[in-house]
Specification:
The chain has one domain: Alpha/Beta hydrolase fold, catalytic domain (Rossmann fold), CATH 3.40.50.1820. A hairpin with a 2-residue loop joins strand 1 and strand 2. An eight-stranded mixed beta sheet has the order 1-2-4-3-5-6-7-8, with helices on both faces. The longest helix is centred in the middle third of the chain and has 17 residues. The chain is α/β, with parallel strands linked by helices. The chain is about 45% helix and about 20% strand.
Length: about 250
């Protein structure tokens, strides 16, 4: 992977393909490798930028608190380094929250938005408290419990669960804890989408056990012109469980 110093941290990334720039942002508690299933399907249409978000993969972790907006600044710094003025941006789960923060901070730089197994709503007070408790537990006990419990929530496919377990075990406790606290504090982005005048793509598995498909349908209801793809039998990892259907949906960002 390549790396660049942005926003006070070292950010790792891969770049593949040619065409319209498209940033692909991974979810929690993972890294950019979960998005690589899309590369051979999209690299002939898009200039793909796949970063590891701060604290994940090969990107630097920080011990101080941060927000989804800070992660958006990281992405902007990476784009500046690559001399990319405008881009489409798509995020899986937590990556969708970062993409929404990017749209909020840099609307003039966005050509389109993709939300893959994600949502626009903020956390409920109960969910926020749960995330903060989980962050405390990770800093105390490490990531093993997350690696054991999370794969079954991400997908029902046993072979993919094993791969995800090993990927989570490679992540750092401070990265996971920081991201949990940042997700807990994110705002409701539904009003932001209502005024968005570029393509919006929604991709969601109908068997998603982490973020119910109703969350994507609520975005579609708020933004009727959004492109909505519902994938039967897919869980939270649509880009790995149904890569062709996910890639086909994201081509609406061209």
């Amino acid at each position: 992977m390549l790396a660049v110093k942005v926003n006070g941290i070292s950010l790792a990334y891969e770049r593949r393909g040619k065409g319209r720039p498209l940033v692909l942002l991974h979810g929690y508690p993972l890294d950019h490798s979960t998005m690589k299933t899309l590369v051979p399907l999209l690299e002939h249409d898009f200039d793909l930028i796949l970063p590891d978000l701060r604290g994940f993969g090969e990107s630097q972790a920080v011990r101080t608190g941060f927000t989804m907006a800070d992660c958006a600044v990281d992405v902007a710094g990476l784009l500046d380094h690559l001399n990319i003025k405008k881009t489409a941006i798509a995020g899986h789960s937590m990556g969708g929250y970062v993409a929404l923060a990017f749209v909020s901070a840099y609307p003039e730089r966005v050509l389109g938005l993709g939300l893959v197994s994600s949502q626009a709503l903020a956390d409920t007070p109960e969910r926020k408290a749960g995330r903060n408790q989980e962050a405390d537990a990770i800093l105390t006990n490490g990531v093993r419990e997350v690696a054991e419990s999370m794969p079954g929530k991400l997908t029902a496919k046993p072979d993919l669960q094993g791969w995800l377990r090993e990927l989570i075990l490679r992540q750092r406790p401070e990265g996971l804890a920081g991201a949990l606290r940042a997700m807990a504090e994110r705002p409701d982005s539904t009003p932001l989408l209502a005024g968005f005048d570029h393509p919006i793509v929604l991709v969601h598995g109908m068997a998603d056990a982490l973020i119910p498909i109703e969350r994507a349908r609520s975005v579609k209801a708020a933004v009727p012109d959004a492109y909505m793809t519902e994938i039967p039998d897919a869980g939270h990892m649509t880009m790995m469980e149904a890569p062709q259907k996910t890639a086909d949906a994201l081509r609406a960002l061209l």
